[in-house]
Write a structure and sequence with these properties.
two-stranded parallel sheet; 2 domains; single chain; Growth Hormone, Chain: A; 62% helix; mainly alpha; 4 strands; 11 helices; 338 residues
């Protein structure tokens, strides 16, 4: 880290910053569109059609979507000076940001499910037989490495086999679109929850068969390798969804807001972890108390993680349905616009 810091500081003395073009901040431009549209909310459809025609607004799907923002073009020129006028590019920029909102909210369901790989999956593994060779046990937390091993193995397969095959059918250089890639990731995530629930059912049955329900500190005689399929499915889902989301949010925001696009991608998992914790807290209070064992009992043999996984499967299914609805009507940002 010290060496990296020294190299960084040496580089700052010779770095050349790009020359500013005296353009207003993209936040200012986008905010100005929403303010102008709000001021003209009483405008009639005929007046909007007239201004669209006179300002040369393109008649395409992008223009029809969030058409209420076109009202910003009606801002009286007498109240605005020079660069303060709202132009078509500003309206398109605002629309491109607004289109991302429902997609980001839906992707939070992916973040909620994603949080389980480092929490309850690990807790399950801690109760199972983790022996690799005599005298050596694998750490339950280290099982997460199989997600990343799957990613390393599957990425070349995706790039060298999957993309060329799909390219032959879709005629698209990328094989499938960014939204299709994310959607496939959603499917694998939902399927992973089904597998996780079934494995947990088997773990609980094994604990009952060996009369270990009330012995949480005793290792259940079921191999930890039963957890590998769900880690494997998480890895495949990440190859599609994680890369797809990163590319999507970076590509679809205005050029000057690409750092915000990257932030939106990371926030999916940050906010997803918070929502997962909130969901666990709510279920804990709803299913526990008054002498009852909650779904997340400290004695995992009396808990019901399988119920929780089925709930997450339902949440993933609802999220996938909502995603397909919004993705089907999503209009990609036009090339050449900011």
């Amino acid at each position: 880290m010290v060496v990296a810091l020294v190299v960084f500081l040496l580089g700052t003395t010779t770095y050349r910053y790009s020359i500013g073009q005296n353009e207003k901040s993209p936040f200012v431009r986008i905010g100005r569109v929403f303010v102008a549209a709000f001021r003209n909310w009483r405008s009639t459809p005929s007046s909007i059609a007239t201004i669209e025609e006179t300002r040369g607004f393109l008649s395409d799907q992008s223009s029809e979507q969030f058409r209420f923002l076109n009202k910003a073009l009606l801002a009286p020129s007498t109240h605005l000076k020079g660069d303060d006028c709202v132009c078509i590019a500003d309206v398109e920029e605002a629309k491109s940001v607004l289109r991302l909102v429902p997609m980001w909210v839906i992707c939070l369901t992916y973040g909620v499910v994603f949080a389980q790989s480092s929490t309850f999956f690990t807790k399950q593994g801690a109760t199972m037989d983790r022996t690799i060779v005599s005298g050596y046990e694998i750490s339950p937390a280290s099982l997460q490495c199989f997600i990343y091993l799957t990613i390393i193995i599957f990425l070349p397969i995706y790039d060298r086999i999957f993309v060329p095959i799909t390219r032959a059918f879709t005629r698209s250089p990328s094989g499938i679109t960014m939204l299709q890639r994310i959607g496939v990731g959603f499917v694998f995530h939902a399927f992973a929850m089904v597998v996780a629930a079934l494995v947990e059912v088997k773990r609980l049955k094994t604990a009952q068969e060996y009369d270990l329900v009330d012995a949480p500190s005793v290792t259940i005689p079921i191999s930890v390798w039963w957890l590998l399929p769900q880690y494997f499915l998480f890895g495949i889902a990440d190859v599609f969804a994680l890369v797809g989301m990163q590319e999507f949010f970076y590509d679809q925001v205005p050029t000057e807001l690409r750092s915000i696009g990257v932030a939106l991608y990371y926030c999916v998992f940050g906010v997803g972890n918070f929502l997962s914790s909130f969901l666990v807290s709510v279920i804990e209070k709803a299913t526990g108390g008054e002498g009852r064992e909650s779904w997340f009992s400290n004695n995992l043999n009396r808990a019901h993680l399988d119920y929780f996984y089925w709930l997450l499967f339902g949440l993933s299914s609802v999220g996938l349905a909502a995603y397909l609805h919004f993705a089907s009507s999503y209009v990609y940002k036009r090339r050449g616009t900011t």
